[in-house]
Amino acid sequence: MACVKHFAFNSMENARFKVSVSCGKRAEREVFLPHFQKCIDAGADAVMTAYNSYDGVACGHHDYLLNQVLKGEWDFDGFVMSDFIWGIQDTAAAMNGGLDMEMPVTKYYGENLLTAVKEGLVSEDRIDEAALRIVRTLLASEDRRKKAAIQNRDRGEHSSLALRRAREGITLLKNEKEILPVNKTYKKRMLVLGELADRENIGDHGSSQVYPPYVITPLQGIARMAEGMELIYYTGESARHCRRLAKDADVVIVVAGNDYLDEGEHVAADSEEKPSQKMGGDRVCGLGLNERDRRIIEAIGTVRTDTVVVLICGGMITVHEWEDKTGAILIAYYPGMEGGAALGEVLFGKVNPGGKLPFAIPETEEDLPEIDWNAAQIRYGYYHGYTLLHRMGKKALYPFGFGLSYTCFQMQEPKAWLENSRICASVSVQNTGRRAGEAVIQMYVGVKDSCAERPEYVLKAFQRVHLSKKQRITVMLSCNIEDTAYYDEEKQTFVTEDTGWMVYIGSSSAREDLYEVEIKMVTQ
Question: Which active-site residues does the annotation give?
Fold first, then answer.
């Protein structure tokens, strides 16, 4: 069963046990809740609450979030469970607030819940409702669980999916003078640097840890593809030795970034019940590379500027401090058990990268708002990510949706129109390069002459397409007009305006990467 978590406003990892989040109603309804609603509409069976509070009330007790919004407005018919151990603080408040199941042990429910019913603090009807939700959902999912048990026996199918996911996700940010892909005809000696190159680094070691049957490391994946070359690996302890090795290599690859210690689950040492764990959490020391990796790149940069840097990370890493010392930059994220294989294929050109950034990388960290990651109270803003940078007039170094390819794509003939309550767009896309590749065509929409303050445009649709060499196709994109609605705080409902729309079609959120097409005001 699909369980959606953490509901809601869970963006403060280190302070999650104590922080109370607040925000305006428009930010709540337009920014921080819609993605949860889409998961519910898609058929999620369970929802896990967050540790943090919202407007001073613990999310595990939150009548507004759980009863009114989730079960009422969204008509969610599954069950709601607590985040583990510390997701409940009071028996009656949690049950009356809409929490159906305590996880993973019985602390506030069980006998305490029976006592609360006997004392009149919780009604029997509420107990019946929670039990019905749990049993009904289990019975409804039985056929799916049987099918899943059969499917899970096919390890090969899962490995193929993991490899495909890693291939499609790897994002090429920079490729000066087309130094990638590596040409083994002319390049005979390869140097790989960095501790993370030879590590099974697939993400968190906390509650989201997974246990794959094997993990292909970046070094192993590179070695597979580097057959016939001399491959040298060094962890990079000595910057001076890195520089010496780099002088004699034809290709230098630095695998840098984060692991679970940098950005994994964090448990604060706030009390005896919440013991300190040596895990990551929010990156309080900055959003750039750690000193170890930065030192390697800077040392090599004194003797060459064609180094290839591969970033392993779960979130954005600023690159402005060292970008000019490199020839190519790839982001592999946490690429999973087949990630090393996919990385090797991309570096050597067996696979043409087509991933796109799921965040914007600013020019400098100073372009972002300052945040106290240990705050007891914080207010979330309406603007965020690329919409915030646009609002502040800041140009991203690498914009949201950006990603290069080993081939080139040309877009022409952008069109936009209304059809059956949908905003539709089309664009002609041609692969003008020398090899096949994948492009991700993106559609952003802005509302003309809106009576509400809004971002200039927001991503509403995208499509990934594969084009062979010289192939041209027409890509169609669309979204519901209702998807452009804003939340009217006085009416307490979403309002769709018919003042006209500006549709932007292109390859990233940057204005220079987008074609603009106007859909004029609807006339009666």
Answer: 83
